[in-house]
Amino acid sequence: METEYSVSQFHPLAAKTASISLSSFGSGGPFSFDSLSRKWNSKKKKKEPFPDEKSSNKHETMGNEWLETGIKFKCPPAVVAVRAALARTVFVKTMRPQPLVSKMLVIGALGMAVNIPLGIWREHTDKFSLSWFTAVHAAVPFIAMLRKSVVMPKTAMALTIAASVLGQIIGSRAERLRLQHI
Questions:
Q1: Does 22 reside within a domain?
Q2: Are residues 25 and 155 in contact, defined by beta-carbon separation less than 8 angstroms?
Q3: Which string of b and e fits 48-57 if b means at least 16 CB within 10 Å?
Q4: Where, by residue number, does the polypeptide cross the bilayer (predicted)?
Q5: Does 50 map to a domain?
Q6: Residue 110: Cβ within 10 Å count
Q7: pTM
Q8: Residue 42 reports pLDDT greater than 80
Q9: Looking at the domain assignment, is residue 31 inside a domain?
Q10: Residue 182, pLDDT score
Q11: What does the pLDDT look like over 103-160, one tens digit per residue?
Q12: What range does the domain containing 86 cover?
């Protein structure tokens, strides 16, 4: 009796479904299906527009070419310089080889610690004023550059944002309680 083994073949629908359902985990992450998606995109035939479409809709993109080509943004030189200076610090050099979980905990704790005094300051400002926006967003560039220099994935932003919000809340509530007891 002869047994037939199925050779795994590329299935375009499965690749597309997998890449769509797990696209929120980011490219290159632990659940990435980028290679399957690339195979799917390379097997797809490009649709040629009708002759009359070529002249009338030159400014519109057909399909997702704009996603594939993308706009490449360059960081301002000041941001690059600050991030390079941050990368040379002993803290970043020791954090970079650490596992992702410990990086996330440390950067999250730093984000919370930095935002506690900013939450205290925010309690003394008018809501939605310039100083309120400054108090809420002052730590964002620092935490973002620190996260980037420690080499954390973009998905870690959720934790750092949550930790920053928690720091703002702790600082604000602590200041309210302090003011009530005066």
A1: yes
A2: yes
A3: eeeeeeeeee
A4: 104-122, 128-146
A5: yes
A6: 20
A7: 0.59
A8: no
A9: yes
A10: 87
A11: 999 999 999 999 999 999 999 999 999 999 999 999 999 999 999 999 999 899 999 9
A12: 77-180
Please check whether residues 87 and 131 belong to one and the same domain: yes
Q: What token pair was written down for 109?
A: 């704790």
pLDDT band at 49 (very low <50, low <70, confident <90, very high): low
Distance CA 167, CA 113 (A): 6
The single residue listed with the structure tokens 């980011």 is 26
Give me the number of domains the chain comprises: 2
CA triple 166-31-69, angle to 5 deg: 90
- Tell me the two tokens of residue 100: 């992702």
Is residue 2 classed as helix, strand or coil in its secondary structure? coil
**Residue 123, in any domain of the structure:** yes
Question: Do 172 and 123 meet the contact criterion of CB atoms below 8 Å apart?
Answer: yes
Length of the chain: 182
**Same domain, yes or no: 154 and 95:** yes
Same domain, 52 and 87: no
User: What is the spatial distance between Cα 37 and Cα 46, in angstroms, rounded to a whole number?
Assistant: 15
Angle 80-72-55 from CA coordinates, rounded to 5°: 160
